């Protein structure tokens, strides 16, 4: 047998897929108050009254999509018991659909027969809306339209049109309830007053999970995904504590548990233990920084490179006016013009948001005023590897040479 032959290994996992994004838990834990509020906002539907429009917001991974599916499934089941309610639910994710026009086309096509679809160009907007009202009226009854990640739409037209379609006389048979979901907390404020008053009739907010709520989420998933006793006692509390400390994001906490499980499996360990969680956390953090840096603009990367070289010289924390000359030097190496000091400070703030640098405000009182000091928050070697392409482009600064070299050496071995 080759040393790379595969044997089935089910010793830790009972159903690993239950930890993946696509898995829908059949019950939601740790969201009781929020579900109650959401439930109340949906209540008119079962009473046969006009549905309210609902705006649901909260940061990433706090259960907005999961809670919406859970409650709407329940609602559909319960509505089936009443003869006088005909309820349909249409859920659309607006990621990738960046205008009201595209959303309207998607809605029409979702409602229409596959043989009778309309194209993504081809019709004036008013015509597409008119197709939409026709389809909705043909379906009739109460129709809930869920627009998930609604902040991806660049214009508000559809958020204005759908809630008013009935009062404007475009719909006769259908009663529409619109549910908009967003993790961009500034989205609501960016809406015009008239859109806000119709879309945000009922608002439900989901806060980040705290550690004890995350423990509930993880325990529930443990039972489906792992065999009994596959996890050491402190694994779930530890994942939950990290998750709460980071962003209160259930997706991140579940990813951490999955990564820890995979590491334990790779080690052929009998149990997932503390050490696996620590190692998994380092790996995920590393991936996150690598991806985050790769997504930065070239100037943001050059500014990070400048700060990294100053850190390697032992001169951090540094003020932006100390980083600037190094940044300008790097810009001139690649023949590009440096951004203004103001734009540079904006980039430093973005880097701090990403968690790759830390910025602290200093106050020198009356004489010196306020300023910020910056330093790397992540391991220097990690940042150097994330910046590899930029370093190749702008040249290897003397101070980071050993780190760059060790990157190349690692690759050879
Ligand atoms: N209360 C919960 N109980 C069980 N699983 C949960 C719970 N909350 C979230 N999850 C799981 O965590 C993951 C993220 O949740 P969800 O997709 O609902 O987040 P979201 O708020 O919609 O985030 P985003 O804004 O990024 O879309 C999903 O896999 C979901 O099944
Ligand atoms: Mg979601």
Order of helices and strands: HEHEHHEHEHHEHHHHHEHHEHEHHH
Q: Mind telling me the CATH superfamily name of the largest domain?
A: P-loop containing nucleotide triphosphate hydrolases
Any idea what the shape is? globular
- Spell out which ligands are present: adenosine-5'-triphosphate, magnesium ion
Instruction: Give the CA-CA distance, first to last residue.
Output: 27 Å
Number of helices: 18
Fraction in beta strands: 5-15%
**CATH level-1 class of the largest domain:** Alpha Beta
Radius of gyration: 26 Å
Number of strands: 8
The low-pLDDT segments are: none
Mean pLDDT: 93
Q: Quickly give the structural class.
A: alpha/beta
Task: Give me the side-by-side strand order of the main sheet.
Answer: 2-3-4-1-5
Major sheet details: 5 strands, parallel
**Tally of distinct domains:** 3
CATH architecture of the largest domain: 3-Layer(aba) Sandwich
Short structural summary:
One of its GO terms (molecular function) is ATP hydrolysis activity. The chain has 413 residues and is an alpha/beta fold.
Q: What is the secondary structure topology, with strand pairs?
A:
Layout: H1 32-46, E1 54-57, H2 64-79, E2 87-93, H3 100-111, H4 125-139, E3 141-148, H5 157-164, E4 174-182, H6 187-190, H7 193-199, E5 202-205, H8 211-225, H9 235-246, H10 250-266, H11 274-294, H12 298-312, E6 318-319, H13 320-334, H14 341-354, E7 357-363, H15 365-368, E8 370-376, H16 380-386, H17 388-394, H18 401-412
Parallel strand pairs: 1-4, 1-5, 2-3, 3-4
Antiparallel strand pairs: 6-8, 7-8
Helix pairs in contact: 1-2, 3-4, 5-7, 8-9, 8-10, 9-10, 10-11, 11-16, 12-13, 12-14
Residues 64-65, 148 line the site of magnesium ion.
């Amino acid at each position: 047998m080759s040393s790379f032959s595969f044997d089935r290994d089910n010793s830790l996992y009972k159903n690993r897929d239950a930890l993946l994004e696509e898995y829908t838990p059949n019950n939601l834990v740790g969201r009781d108050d929020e579900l109650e509020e959401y439930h109340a906002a949906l209540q008119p539907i079962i009473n046969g009254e006009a549905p309210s429009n609902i705006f649901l917001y909260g940061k990433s991974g706090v259960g907005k999509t999961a809670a919406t599916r859970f409650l709407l499934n329940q609602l559909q089941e319960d509505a089936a018991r009443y003869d006088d309610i005909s309820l349909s639910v249409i859920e659309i994710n607006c990621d990738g659909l960046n205008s009201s026009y595209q959303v309207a086309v998607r809605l029409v096509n979702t409602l229409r027969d596959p043989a009778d679809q309309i194209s993504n160009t081809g019709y004036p907007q008013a015509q597409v809306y008119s197709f939409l009202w026709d389809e909705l009226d043909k379906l009739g009854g109460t129709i809930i339209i869920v627009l998930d990640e609604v902040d991806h739409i660049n214009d508000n037209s559809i958020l204005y049109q759908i809630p008013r379609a009935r009062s404007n006389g475009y719909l006769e048979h259908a009663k529409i309830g619109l549910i908009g979901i967003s993790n961009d907390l500034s989205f609501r404020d960016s809406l015009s007053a008239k859109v806000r008053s119709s879309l945000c009739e009922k608002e439900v907010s989901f806060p980040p999970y705290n550690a004890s709520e995350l423990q509930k989420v993880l325990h529930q998933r443990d039972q489906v995904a792992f065999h009994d006793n596959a996890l050491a006692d402190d694994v779930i509390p530890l994942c939950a504590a990290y998750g709460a400390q980071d962003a209160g994001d259930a997706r991140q906490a579940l990813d951490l548990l999955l990564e820890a499980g995979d590491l334990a499996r790779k080690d052929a360990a009998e149990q997932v233990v503390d050490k696996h969680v620590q190692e998994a956390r380092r790996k995920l953090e590393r991936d996150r920084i690598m991806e985050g840096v790769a997504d930065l603009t070239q100037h943001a990367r050059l500014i990070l490179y400048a700060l990294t070289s100053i850190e390697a010289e032992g001169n951090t924390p540094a003020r932006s006016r100390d980083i600037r000359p190094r940044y300008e030097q790097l810009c001139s190496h690649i023949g590009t013009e440096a951004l203004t000091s103001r734009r540079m400070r904006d980039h430093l703030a973005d880097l701090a948001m990403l968690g790759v640098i830390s910025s602290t405000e200093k106050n020198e009182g009356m004489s010196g005023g306020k300023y910020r000091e910056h330093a790397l928050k992540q391991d220097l070697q990690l940042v150097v590897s994330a910046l590899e392409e930029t370093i190749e482009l702008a040249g290897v600064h003397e101070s980071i040479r050993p780190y760059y070299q060790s990157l190349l050496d690692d690759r050879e071995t």
